[in-house]
């Protein structure tokens, strides 16, 4: 089988779309490490801080004024469920990072409520990640991360921080909440990178 078919969404046999050790579910399970924070769109803010200390801030209105994307993707949770053909609406990180000057290689994403997760900056670029605010044509429910969450479907779903509030761009990698607790630092579902040492 060619490598190309793996990431190819919406085509091919379903087996080809299921990463190793995963099963398909039609539910949308809720996985949260703590209570759901309720953030109104009036108080919601999203910031990107660069390694030089520059801060870029977007209000909800700012976010809504940006060009939107409608990613159609499969998602994979490290607890082994995968969900095919999920439909989202959001703003690509390419758009948000367009005017951000940075030579950083790493990103540390943080959420309202205190959750954090880390990934290489390049995994947020080139159409691979979004700030998503709608699911299935409706505003994103609070338990799924509303008003807005990170969506980075090519990595295990713990990287898709719910209730996202900001991203710090860093010269040096800094592990987030689950990464510190023993989850894999990168988390590629196709290589079954679940825990340290995988
Ligand atoms: N802020 C925050 N984001 C989070 C989590 C969390 O506990 N807090 N859990 C992660 C995990 S482990 C998964 S599998 C997905 C679950 O998203 P869902 O509840 O919408 O299915 O959110 C991820 N993002
Ligand atoms: Mo998860």
Description:
The protein contains four helices and eleven strands. A hairpin with a 4-residue loop joins β6 and β7. With 198 residues, it is mainly beta. The strands form two sheets. Strands 1, 4, 5, 8, 9 and 10 form a six-stranded mixed sheet that branches. Strands 3-2-11-6-7 form a five-stranded mixed sheet. 32% of the residues are buried. The protein has a single domain (39-191), classed as Oxidoreductase, molybdopterin-binding domain (Sulfite Oxidase, Chain A, domain 2), CATH 3.90.420.10. Residues 1-11 have low confidence and may be disordered. The chain is globular, with a radius of gyration of 16 Å. The structure holds ligand MTE and molybdenum atom. Residues 31, 77-79, 157-158 line the site of molybdenum atom. Molybdenum atom is lined by residues 31, 77-79, 157-158.
């Amino acid at each position: 089988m060619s490598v190309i078919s793996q990431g190819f969404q919406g085509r091919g046999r379903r087996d080809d779309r299921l990463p190793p050790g995963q099963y398909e579910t039609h539910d949308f399970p809720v996985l949260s490490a703590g209570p759901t924070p309720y953030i109104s769109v009036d108080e919601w803010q999203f910031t990107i801080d660069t390694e030089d200390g520059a801060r870029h801030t977007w209000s909800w209105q700012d976010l809504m004024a940006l060009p939107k994307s409608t990613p159609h993707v499969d998602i994979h949770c490290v607890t082994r469920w995968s969900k095919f053909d999920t439909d989202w609406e959001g703003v690509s990180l390419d758009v948000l990072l367009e005017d951000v000057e940075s030579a950083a290689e790493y990103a540390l994403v943080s959420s309202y409520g205190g959750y954090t997760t880390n990934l290489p900056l390049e995994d947020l670029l080139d159409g691979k990640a979004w700030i998503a605010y709608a699911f299935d044509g409706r505003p994103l429910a609070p338990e799924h991360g509303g008003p807005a969450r990170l969506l980075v479907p090519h990595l295990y779903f713990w990287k898709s921080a719910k209730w996202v509030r900001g991203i710090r761009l860093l010269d040096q990698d800094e592990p987030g909440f689950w990464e510190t607790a023993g989850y894999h630092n990168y988390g590629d579902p196709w290589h079954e990178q679940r825990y340290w040492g995988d």
